[in-house]
């Protein structure tokens, strides 16, 4: 089959082809993972308190990520005069964790298994939610032999504190993950950025968060601090796990989410925070949650999520000197 | 306050006023229910296997129901030359059962409590889902002293059989309710109408359903049978509980649902079936499920649900000679 | 009915329950109003000159307001370290004023009656439009014995001046309300903020407005002035009535309106203006108009309106020391 | 400018060009009308009782009508083996009647003026609503010297009877037009087809309609009658004015309307009725109302309206032997 | 990695996982194809004359196809009492043909290459468009050694005749494919079903089609004929290539397409035609075109396409006695 | 016809009337053009690499432009205290260039013919795309006797560099226009503003652009420069052609486009740049491209485009002292 036009390569326009993350290879057998970055979908939205729909987040973000595939090798950014994600940063798509409807714990366990598989392979886990409750199994996956990087800090970018301990017996909904994370011995602290307005966390939750080592920063506070001070809220020299709730952003660019909250961040504010952290700290994991494509009629939210993930992965490996090994 | 225009009554156009079901009174205290019909919302959609969103079904159907409120006393139908739902049919809106995210059983228990309250008050329970799993607590509510009508038949109007026993431990999702119902001693049989295409129930489920007393009728089979024969599939003289999954309908008029399935019923087919059953059997309860307003950009699905419910309640009480007591 | 889970209280998630404003009680009989805040819907949109649809504004804002109900007592804001809207701020929903299609004056009269009822009860009237013409009857309601606070200033937050006197006989459309207001003896002046671009008011209208005591401030002018100077444009010590046209905001967050206009305010700009005014002046009434939910596919506009109203009511009563009596 | 590709004619694809009706010439000066068919927009929707938006009906139908312009001369229909609308059927677009917001009567008067202008020119008036209240001025325009065809019958195709005399003073809303028409001495009778379900007309309205010479036929009755009998409900030898409310159709194909009603007509049912009437009776005027493009996300409703209008005009002039003079 | 829940298999709910067609394996290297069915995307829509968007058809249909994946082996249809698509029918997804924007011929050549690859592998080519022009390269691919089945008949299910020879030089747009097909020596005839209303083919095109061996059947004609006679329009004993333009269907269920046309087929009409043909003739190829997901807000059209394709493939291999070899 | 209400003029609300640009006259015969501004639609989108749909840009922008028509003479801007576009600025709508599907060059030629016609008439060409490839024929039209202004500079406002020379033979897609422009001898330089993120132009394209005289400025760079310095990037005293890709803007206000890119400009940033250039340089032509109304559910993008065009035309003629002659 050497005589046709494909022999000289595909143009591979963005709208062409199967929607894996960044059009990268799909690896169904997690025992054979061999990559620098392993992207896992976690399509669980049973933890939501307003609109559901984040179960289609992984598919939505995957398709949006193909918009940034023009068939070039790497992604040239003229502002930084850098080509991110050259061919030697090997990204694979693990597909999705298996989800069991009506069964929160089983679904979470399956997500945890996926993250452990990525860690075991030495790949950076990048998890696409799903609602924010899927951060719970993501963090749990770092408690065993698959991860050897030591205690880490969590940078949460979010509109909501998500620090409810328990209400009506609920401990694993999308209002609980940061509390669950803070309880882990290997989580050394939290920086919670973008927090604003009324949410499911009551006054007590804020007090608890601060008592458990959290620094809480609103959008306006972050703006007043400036990027440098904001970056200082993440301790130097400590590995960092980043969790991004898309509702941290202004609904003007991220309407496709369960619980939009006005007054959120604009694009560059978060992009520069992520670029800064990637340059200062070793990033050991990443999740991006609460993208609900069915509430995103223009595609803006999924495109935002895809832009952020591709850029952040680029920043991380650029900071590593493109060296593909994950040694936190 | 006697000198203003309101003294002579409101015009009360459909778009005006609080969206309770049919603009009927809201009764928050279920201990004080005194009505012929008690409408309960059951906004649980944790049992879905494709699109969620039925949690907004009760609100969507309530708002759509106001379209049929033009401030007249009763609803005149020129085809039947009858005025349905005269003032002496007392309908109240109970509001919604309390839902606990991530907790299927708790949510179901709360729905069951609501249905029991309606039955205790002697009112016809009319439950608006939520996904089809909410039929499980609805049926459970008939096992105690609140209901004294004896064994009853279930008429299910649906695209899917919903007869899965258990998969990966799931027994209370939206693929299971008819199996759970058939297991009850006080359910004497099922008529399952509209069933078509591939679904979550595999071949074994169909065999089990038939073995447990179910008659399964597809859309095309129903059309070939004609209305009279179709009505004969519901035993005479037996109380009937009706459960309507909106996906029984053709997606052309009911796109706003979790798992649309082509080839469904058109409007009059179901309307006449309901009118027929209401005329022949004593209807002891009713639920309508799987309306997901966020997938219903034109409002067609919610309007269909509202039309069906208002008409069916009208038919039931017309058949009772408008007598408002529920004595099955 | 003491043995079920409801005895210990509901979780009452945002998506659960009847959509009254903030899930507060609905009071249909306006003679029995006993509240600090009385919310009235004014679903009239016959005054529009581009897209209609504001008739569904009250319902849209009501439903969006339930997003901020997580079953907590009060709304904790960590930036202000304050809990707004504690239980002793009694808010009720009056439902909607009766609207008569094709009859502007009758509809306006019915709205006026509702505002008078709120004032008579000593409650703060909060009116949800409808198009901006509904401000006309709102202001008219302050001319009688129901209100005894003396002359007041109007703070209008809007893209358009709405100061047309008359065109083709039209004096009560949505381009006329500020002219009608300025004509009242008990209106001491206007601050018109956010005004920009081409609109239905021609050059003469601007001259007239200034001549009749109005200060006109564009978005860019407001930004150059800064918050303090902007607040100074509202005279100290004078009661203030606030009218918010949602198109004052940038279409990026408020697309769901009749006549969107680019270059509008962002969220905090208006929020801080409202917080400032609530802290400096006695607010005697409030309307928010031109939310058209059918042009708001993501819900962003209704959510914005609900956030603004809940916050502003909170600011007003926080400033009053939570004291619930309306004595301007 | 004779040397470019346009010299040999345009391909003129449907998506190219200004959206006049059928891409026909726009005649702004109604004193110079010289045509067989004059299309007038009547963008008034102040008479609606549920969703507004029909004000954009004329623009929506115009744009949809361009879909049927492939640059051919005439429209070949292989089923009839006929080419409709050959070049000698001269259609012009009059643009819209001037509408005055908040002023029903003024707006109606302006519509009436437009229809009179069409009649005066000897053209067949084809009016695109707007809500159904615009039929009132359309019918009024036939009372003077512009029309000399004598008493005529009205064929209404609609879901709703629209026969309310007066409620709360309203006599010119979209629930009143058929009553207003029946009151005219020159209207000899009505055939009302498609009427179904609950509407703004109460039982008394039906009795009045029958007493005033109306024959009321539901969708199911029409189907049982068959086309021939249905056609017989329109008296032979009498001029006919046709008024089509798009909600006569099933919401499956016409969701973009103010008050959708399930159980409506499918496409061929109405098409064949129109073709039959055009073949049997002299059609002296036509309006099509209640298309609300903003509730028509797929364009289906506007396309339906455009197909119907183009086909019906074709049928009318085909029946006239293509002779372009309007002599009823 | 043997100790986790995945060891016992996935539940694999429809919303979980990468969107290949039917969740079947993706084979990027077309030289290694080894399958019974090879699904190829042809995302070219440069041939459209109204709305574009069919370039996203392959992705839309792929995602919709996952709705029918509930993790069962095969698809049980209770009406036929048959399990279609058992494990031994090996379906693979080839991904998409490479598309070059602004270059129709190059894009078509790349599609042709893909179909040839499928044929060479002995697999049934199933091509998802893309606009109908992609049928041109599909048919061209049968002219060489990859296909040895001899002359074949084409069954086109479509609203439009697509038989334009040339206009303004265009010969490979979506109005031309059936003309191009009829010109091939190895195409023995055409049956064109569903043709109706005005389209890009003028009167001459119809005459040409008949002269070149085509039988043209409208929707109403097909209904009058009945299924058996309709099936007789496809010659017995001849291999058949099937091309389905989704606009053959009524816009009520297939609005998401470039040029919707009212009066189209309903679901069972086409399903039974396809089932009949699959049972009588050897089907040697299949394309389904003109699905434009961005005009399909409810997903109805993509779901219809997926249902049709999965069912038709099932019928074809059921008729072959599940025997997986393609020997026409 | 002097006795009706139209004699005294129309109110001419925005939603009334045929959608030509700004409700200005449509001139079909380009040989008779006599205007200061000639607006041409160029509905070609065959050059797109992600979403198509810009073919409906001209119609969408035209309709949106009617929102700014309130029947006043001129557009009063209170910030500038100026009335723009007084009656003596004569704007006409040329309709659309003829487009030939599948034929990029023919379509481009037809666009070029239209621009030449405008130039020949001494009118300012204002072209509404279509995708950005339509800039190619726009620029080509300045190479002949129709334009005598000498070499000019291009100001491009865009997210993407569009400087690809050739890929897979494509030289006239929407990623190529600036390269094609830079190749012209009469283009003296380019200022490319708003460029950001990954796009179809690889690193080499940036180097080439700079080598060919281009200054590339990102959004963040433009913000850091400030308006004055940004304006300085356009050489003084040189005629300027402006090309605006709507994706230069933040997707929050311009989601309705083919390839949205986060981090774009807000409204005033571009407005003030355009006002500045119009005041400093002679503007000889203008195109605005990539508005895709079908991805713009709220209308925000079309309204933005219409506001920009009307304002920019106003600025240009205000700077000319309203003098209507185009003498660059």
TrEMBL record, chains A, B, C, D, E, F:
Parts of the chain that traverse the membrane: none
Q: Does the keyword Lyase apply?
A: no
Which BP terms does GO give this entry? putrescine biosynthetic process from arginine, via agmatine
The UniProt record lists the EC number as 3.5.3.11
Name any one GO molecular function.
agmatinase activity
UniProt KW keywords? Hydrolase, Manganese, Metal-binding
Sorted alphabetically, which InterPro entries does this protein's record hold?
A: Ureohydrolase (IPR006035), Ureohydrolase_dom_sf (IPR023696), Ureohydrolase_Mn_BS (IPR020855)
Q: Where does Mn(2+) bind?
A: 132, 158, 160, 162, 245, 247
Cofactor binding note from Swiss-Prot or TrEMBL: Binds 2 manganese ions per subunit.
**Does the keyword section mention Manganese?**
yes
- PROSITE patterns this protein is in? ARGINASE_1, ARGINASE_2
Its needed co-factors are: Mn(2+)
Q: This protein's superkingdom?
A: Bacteria
Q: Which family does it belong to?
A: Belongs to the arginase family. Agmatinase subfamily.
Report the protein name in the record. Agmatinase, putative
Task: Give the species this sequence originates from.
Answer: Roseobacter denitrificans (strain ATCC 33942 / OCh 114) (Erythrobacter sp. (strain OCh 114))
